[in-house]
């Protein structure tokens, strides 16, 4: 009997815990099924393993909520070449699905409509085909639907009008046909609607013009016709309607006034010649002013007006032409993206206006400005107004369209560098300026929106000739990133000019080294000082890698103020890298704080690096500087071509700045005064050069400091 009870208890134990294991692994199984479809060759999603934990942080692009359920999948720009997996329907808690900027093909699975908690769906810039599933109407939580830049066909489902929370709808650059559904006028929270670069015809629905929050309606490059609703005049530049020759209206600068014939038939498509007839197509959505006596599924023949017959006739012609035209358009679009990258292969800081126009003529992104959605917009109108209203803040805002176009869809050809929390791309703006665009993952930024915004405000206040200039920023909820747009600095960073051996690299002349030290000092002094619209700042991460060199070999400090945007753990990870390279002041280990004196310590290390031409500073170099043995701390690549008085003065400054006690270190203001004295010994005018007696006195100061 006892043995039987033992077996029964074992059975119950394994049954209970076995069920728990099965239930606990249900989302894991879904992810593995998704991986098989998204990445059939296991090239990209190798971190998704069948024995792993999706919520451990080890699954690339997967994030979980507080209940341990998969809530977000961010795989944008990963070069995935599979299909949109129907298995994703098994992730019931999913709120964000970001698969844009890939090479996914096939149709959008209708099973995706089971994701009733999904708020953001980004499938744009892929190679998806087929029609938009009408079942999407079941996704009641959807706020952003991004399907642009694919090969989608068919009509726009009238069922999209059921998505009451939808604020952004982007369907541009597809092959969609038919009329614009009047049901889209039911989307009372809609802010932006982009239907451009399709094959839509008929009129613009009057109900759509009355959507209260609508700011942008883009219907360019279709075959729309009829009278434009006067209410759209309130959108001003937000209403874009070019290349629709059949449109007419009053109060629109580039539209003709409607005639009696166009008003009689506002839904007439563009004419293809007399006598056009065609068959019946089921999926033509309702148009603006047609009010058939029918429900969603059954209509009586009495509701079919003569105008509908014309519409059906046009459909037949378009269907006949669509294969050839669509293939040509798509081939041109793909070739454009492939060829443009070569236009960015320039080391100049600016292209000519003609060159820039040519680049943008070929590469202008058809993407809409969807970056400021409900998910993350630290500068949304009406929020954080005190910061947003500050003068000049608005001028720094870029939109995602500009960032995408500048970087050629974040092409790897333009990737300058990458870390565990950011990436830097080279890009070209519309005015021809060459820029560096730093992309920072949202998860690496400060969680408090007000603190993040305060950090942005500080960055925009920094203006100095020895700091890398910030051109602007863009916060993209769709990509989950913040972009900082800086002036491009062509000659790399100071690190590249250290440890030069056997002609592999450029040896900096002595005068350039002195000039670089002076420029770095001025940049740090500006940060440390309090100005009218700028607080006193500590850089916290000064290193040779952060000193960029422009065409005239002037130094520019990068990442100034960046720590004000970043989360504490990211700042700490940067700190560890700083310590490993020897730039971290010794007192940090006891105080845990950055101060102006910790910046001075890093500056002293950089002075030693510039003098010695070495990345690693040794004790023998410091001892050589103390006793003025130039051969121990001056770069041998200079072959003796340097000023001993300047070298002595700079060595003395470096020694004091790297003193173990922060109280013994110089302020940057004092350093600049000392550097001014230093340069006088090599003045062009003989009357301004130091006498040998003064040089000897300066050398004496060098040795006495030991």
From TrEMBL:
Keywords: Leucine-rich repeat, Membrane, Repeat, Signal, Transmembrane, Transmembrane helix. The keyword Protein biosynthesis does not apply. Residues 1-24 form the signal peptide. GO terms for cellular component: membrane. CDD domains: STKc_IRAK. The chain crosses the membrane at residues 308-330. GO terms for molecular function: ATP binding; protein serine/threonine kinase activity. Gene3D superfamilies: Phosphorylase Kinase, domain 1, Ribonuclease Inhibitor, Transferase(Phosphotransferase) domain 1. Its main location: membrane. Residues 410-691 form the Protein kinase domain. It is a single-pass membrane protein. It is found in: Membrane. This is Protein kinase domain-containing protein.
């Amino acid at each position: 009997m006892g043995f039987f009870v033992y077996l029964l208890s074992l059975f119950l134990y394994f049954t209970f815990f076995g069920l728990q294991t099965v239930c606990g692994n249900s989302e894991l199984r879904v992810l593995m099924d998704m991986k098989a479809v998204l990445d059939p060759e296991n090239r990209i999603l190798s971190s998704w393993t069948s024995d792993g934990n999706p919520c451990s942080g080890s699954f690339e692009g997967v994030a979980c909520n507080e209940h341990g359920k998969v809530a977000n999948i961010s795989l944008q720009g990963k070069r995935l070449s599979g299909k949109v997996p129907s298995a994703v329907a098994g992730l019931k808690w999913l709120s964000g699905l970001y698969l844009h900027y890939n090479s996914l093909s096939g149709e959008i699975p209708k099973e995706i409509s089971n994701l009733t908690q999904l708020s953001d769906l980004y499938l744009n810039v892929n190679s998806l085909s087929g029609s938009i599933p009408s079942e999407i109407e079941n996704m009641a939580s959807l706020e952003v639907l991004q399907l642009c830049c694919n090969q989608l066909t068919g009509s726009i489902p009238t069922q999209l009008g059921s998505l009451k929370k939808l604020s952004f709808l982007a369907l541009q650059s597809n092959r969609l046909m038919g009329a614009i559904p009047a049901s889209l006028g039911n989307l009372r929270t809609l802010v932006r609607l982009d239907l451009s670069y399709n094959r839509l015809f008929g009129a613009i629905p009057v109900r759509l013009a009355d959507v209260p929050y609508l700011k942008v309606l883009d219907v360019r490059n279709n075959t729309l016709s009829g009278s434009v609703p006067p209410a759209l005049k309130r959108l001003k530049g937000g209403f874009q309607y070019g290349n629709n020759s059949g449109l007419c209206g009053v109060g629109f600068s580039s539209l003709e006034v409607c005639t009696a014939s166009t008003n009689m038939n506002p839904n007439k498509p563009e004419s293809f010649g007399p006598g056009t007839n065609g068959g019946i197509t089921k999926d033509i959505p309702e148009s603006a002013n047609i009010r058939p006596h029918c429900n969603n599924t059954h209509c009586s023949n009495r509701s079919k007006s003569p105008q509908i017959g014309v519409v059906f006739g046009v459909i037949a012609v378009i269907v006949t032409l669509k294969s050839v035209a669509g293939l040509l358009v798509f081939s041109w679009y793909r070739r454009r993206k492939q060829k443009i990258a070569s236009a960015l292969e320039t080391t100049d800081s600016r292209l000519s206006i003609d060159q820039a126009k040519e680049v943008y003529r070929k590469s202008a992104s058809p993407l809409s400005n969807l970056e400021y959605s409900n998910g993350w917009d630290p500068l949304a109108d009406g929020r954080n107004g005190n910061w947003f209203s500050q003068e000049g803040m608005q001028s720094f805002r870029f939109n995602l369209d500009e960032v995408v176009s500048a970087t050629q869809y974040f092409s790897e050809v333009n990737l300058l560098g990458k870390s565990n929390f950011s990436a830097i791309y080279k890009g070209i703006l519309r005015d021809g300026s060459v820029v560096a665009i730093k992309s920072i993952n949202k998860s690496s930024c400060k969680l408090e929106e007000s603190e993040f915004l305060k950090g942005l405000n500080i960055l925009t206040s920094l203006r100095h000739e020895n700091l890398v200039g910030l051109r602007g920023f863009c916060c993209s909820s769709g990509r989950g990133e913040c972009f900082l747009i800086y002036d491009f600095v062509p000659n790399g960073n100071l690190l590249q000019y250290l440890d030069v051996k056997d002609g592999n690299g450029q040896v900096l002349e002595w005068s350039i080294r002195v000039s670089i030290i002076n420029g770095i000092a001025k940049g740090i002094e500006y940060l440390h000082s309090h100005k009218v619209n700028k607080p006193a700042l500590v850089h916290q991460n000064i290193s040779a890698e952060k000193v960029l060199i422009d065409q005239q070999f002037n130094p520019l400090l990068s990442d100034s103020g960046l720590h004000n945007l970043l989360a504490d753990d990211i700042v700490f990870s940067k700190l560890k890298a700083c310590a490993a390279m020897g730039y971290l002041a010794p007192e940090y280990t006891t105080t845990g704080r950055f101060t102006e004196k910790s910046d001075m310590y890093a500056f002293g290390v950089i002075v030693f690096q510039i003098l010695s031409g070495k990345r690693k500073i040794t004790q023998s170099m410091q001892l050589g500087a103390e006793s003025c043995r130039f051969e121990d701390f001056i770069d041998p690549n200079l072959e003796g071509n340097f000023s001993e008085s300047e070298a002595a003065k700079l060595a003395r400054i470096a020694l004091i700045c790297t003193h173990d006690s922060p109280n013994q270190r110089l302020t940057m203001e004092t350093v600049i005064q000392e550097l001014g004295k230093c340069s006088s010994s090599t003045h062009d005018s003989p009357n301004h050069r130091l006498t040998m007696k003064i040089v000897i006195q300066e050398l004496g100061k060098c040795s006495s400091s030991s």
